[in-house]
Design brief:
- The chain is of the alpha/beta class.
- Helix content is 18%, strand content 18%.
- The chain contains four helices and eight strands.
- It has a four-stranded mixed β-sheet, with helices on one face. A four-stranded mixed β-sheet has the order 5-8-7-6.
- Strand 7 and strand 8 form a beta hairpin.
- The longest helix is centred in the middle third of the chain and has 14 residues.
- The chain is globular and about 55 Å long.
Amino acid sequence: MVTMDSNTMAEQTDATAGAIPRSLFKITKIGHVVLNCSDIDLSVRFYTEILGFKVSDWYPESMVPGRMCFMRFDPDHHGIALVGSMKDKSPNVELNHIAFEVATLDEVVTARNHLRRVGVPIDFEGRRRAGVQIAVEFRDPDGHRLEIFWGLDRVYHDNEIRRSEEWNLALTLEEAIKNPVPGQDTRLKNPGLLTEDLPAPVRWTQGGSSRWADFKRTDGKG
């Protein structure tokens, strides 16, 4: 087994600073995420009925304690899998959140409206800072943080990374759309999505706090 301590990593980082790392392989994407859950049937209903995933396969109890469900959202056999082995809600200690990209900004707004209607707890909506994606962040039945986003910056060269002065944090989708960052076209194909009558958002209260729960702005916008 190969081990590497922090000093060794620091030495290698210093020695190769600014160089393109050479490797025998190249990672092309994050393939899938596997989550433990406390009620696998409820969680499968959430991912299929609320988020539109499709079930590809199941492992029965005889194969995996608690059973395991593989679900897809594109041609890959599974993008998310669930294992029913957790005894209680997630404390959100080791996993911060999982993000799913959609093709249009209209779909982010549609997702926000849909989540509000079905009573899914929402932690955040608007524009994030680094990367400037416009997103809605919410919870699955076990409290895992999930995100649906559009508009993440693409970086092909180091000198193309957006300056922090252009991040322009927004704490609602309406604010993000009204105040775009340079190069981000926030015009909706269906502006009526912003005027739909929606119930008040539900906040998560069952273990694992939102990283936005106590957030206070420092830019003078509220």
